[in-house]
Amino acid sequence: MDWNADLYENKHDFVAEYGRDLLSNVPENPGQAILDLGCGTGTLTHALLEKSTSVVGLDASPEMIGKARQLYPGMDFRVLDACLMPWNNWFDVIFSNAAFHWIPDHGALLKAVSRALKPQGKLICEFGAHRNILRIREAFRPSLERMNLPYKTRFYFPTVEEYRSMLEQAGLRPEVVMDFDRPTPLKDGPYGLRNWARQFFWADLKCLHEKRRVRIFEEMEKALRDELWDGTQWVADYRRIRVIASKQAEGPHRGKGARTCRIR
Ligand code: BEZ
Predict the structure, then answer these.
(1) N or C: at which end does the chain have fewer Cβ atoms within 10 angstroms?
(2) Considering the entire predicted model, what is its pTM?
(3) Residue of minimum CA distance from atom 5 in ligand 1
(4) Substitution candidate for ligand 1 out of 64, 133, 134, 240 with most atoms within 8 A of CB
């Protein structure tokens, strides 16, 4: 995925603003080690300094990390694929806002999260739930297909039941797994939806001439006007899944009654 870090920072800063509510679940403890997974331009990584002095921001996008380093010099930001994190028993908290739905393989992701957490460490995250941006996706798909372009689902938006089971398989004990609607106003009045699509559907749009992109935006706007335009702004049909889970002390994949070997 190519990211336009400036467009993200200027027009989609609401992503981090909504994440502030999730931050209130992170305990304050100056000694704890926190990882912000999928940190984008670093707004919440910086805010996490209120919770601890030891905070690392990680993102797979060099553009995003470049912007984060520029905005918050001196903080520890890394360009890394979350599934390939090298840490073992290292973090007390892994925090993530609006990032997990970009990662296709949650088996690999949650294994890496479980490995990187200390025993009893917590995963605190929020991302797109089942049926997230469904109306937007349903309007985008036929516009692309009319141009003979295939629509590829790039996102993972799980149900609560599915995600509980994924967490347990990775050795993470679900404490909170809930989903909810979060209608999200988009900046820039009439241009809000097309700016949003330009940022987040860019992988599908980048091969098109600007004239064809604009045609897609106009078709989407026409299809969605009745449902998502409130008279002054576009309101995206976001749904969230919020997760708090802790790493089981004895680690993943150990069945009931498993024995530990004592060295005498
Ligand atoms: C979101 O739910 O945050 C989201 C999902 C897909 C594209 C952009 C944003």
Answers:
(1) C
(2) 0.89
(3) 128
(4) 133
